[in-house]
Design a protein that fits this description.
3 strands, three-stranded mixed beta sheet, 2 domains, 9 helices, Alpha-lytic protease prodomain-like, mainly alpha, Cation diffusion facilitator family transporter, SLC30A9
């Protein structure tokens, strides 16, 4: 989580400085796309704060009301961030763009806008490099897209997507501003704002999809399931693993629930010993599996009703 915080702090600092300068330049040059970019930076700044809050809240200790802890706080606030990008970032930019295409305004002096765009690209680019370096450490040989899809820590890929969209948006605004002045076509400034909005909406939909999947209880990967089956069915007291269910409570915490059919000739003490062995081996191999619930079951015959599920 340290790496993700590093990229978040870098993005927070960059977006805060850039938002102020964009609004100033947009007001001076009368550029709707620059104002849209300013709104984009404000939204990104708020997003970084929400992610930091989500990380902090997810670290709260379990209590009587949340016995499994507060890990899903991070997933919830990551989903909120994706909605903000869609509504405040993409929605406002699209609205601004349409208004200025229908009613184009005379463009002012673009000098300040060019200066701010250059500085913004520098800061956003630096933030993107930090986010990319930190995420690259987590890829573990996967392609960038596969690593994003399989990542269980939205704070890492959210910042990466935000910074990528920010840099792309800045170049769109730069091209729109230049063409608008070169061709004496003020409506192109609105077109640039519209394109930035569409870009942000596309990014927000991807992020919302990934965050929602985690929030709804995404489980462990197939290879891990196969290994757990080997561990369970390799125990001397087990007949068969009947069911396996899992859910990420946070990027570092997994809840595992398995239903196991034990051999019929075992008594209560022997079954409990098997449960202890299985639970111990699973936790020894997978540090992220913090909660292991093992429920005895039968294929035929009966299991002693005094055997209790273990956590």
């Amino acid at each position: 989580m340290t790496g993700s915080k590093k990229s978040i702090y870098a993005a927070l600092f960059a977006n805060l400085i850039i938002a102020i300068t964009k609004f100033l330049a947009g007001g001076i040059s009368n550029s709707s796309s620059m104002i849209a970019e300013g709104i984009h930076s404000v939204v990104d700044t708020v997003n970084q704060l929400l992610l930091l809050m989500g990380i902090t809240l997810s670290k709260k200790k379990p209590d009587r009301y949340h016995p499994l802890g507060y890990g899903k706080e991070l997933y919830f606030w990551s989903f909120v961030v994706s909605i903000l990008i869609f509504g405040l970032g993409g929605g406002v930019s699209v609205y601004q763009g349409i208004i200025h295409i229908i009613h184009p305004e005379e463009l002012g002096d673009p000098t300040w806008s060019y200066a701010v765009l250059a500085v913004s690209i520098l800061f956003e680019g630096a933030s993107l490099v930090v986010a990319a370096i930190e995420f690259n450490k987590l890829r573990d040989g996967l392609s960038w897209w596969d690593a994003i899809i399989k990542s269980k820590d939205p704070s890492t890929f959210l910042v990466l997507f935000e910074d990528t969209a920010a840099v792309a948006g800045l170049f769109i605004v730069l091209i729109g501003l230049y063409l608008g002045h070169a061709l004496d076509a003020p409506y192109l400034d609105g077109v640039a704002s519209l394109l930035v909005g569409i870009l942000l909406i596309a990014v927000s939909l991807i992020l919302a999809r990934e965050s929602r999947s985690l929030l709804m209880g995404e489980g462990i990967k197939l290879s891990t399931k196969k290994r757990i089956r080997q561990i369970v069915e390799g125990d001397a007291g087990v007949l068969k693993l009947m069911h396996l269910m899992s859910s990420y409570q946070s990027p570092e915490e997994i809840l595992l629930m398995i239903i196991v059919a034990f051999k019929h000739d075992q008594n209560t003490l022997e079954i409990n010993d098997s449960i202890d062995r299985i639970r111990g081996q699973i936790k020894a191999e997978y540090a992220r599996i913090r909660f292991v619930i093992i429920q005895p079951d039968v294929i035929e015959g009966r299991i002693d009703p005094n055997v209790q599920a273990y956590i």
